[in-house]
Amino acid sequence: MDRIIKAVIFDGQARASVLDTTDAVNRLIAIHRLSPLSAAALGRTITAGAYISANLKGKGDRFNMIVDGGGPLGKIVVAGESGGTVKGFVEHPAIELPPKNGKLDVGGAVGKEGFLTLIKDLGLKEPYVGRSPLVTGEIAEDFASYLLHSEGIASAVALGVLTDCNGCKAAGGVIVEALPSADENTLVMLEDIVRNFTSVSALLSEKSAEEIMDFYFGHLHCEVLDTEPIRLFCNCAEKVEGIVAGLGRQEAESIIKEQGKIEINCDYCRSQYVYTEKDLDRIFADD
Question: What is the largest CA-CA distance in the chain?
Answer without folding.
Answer: 69
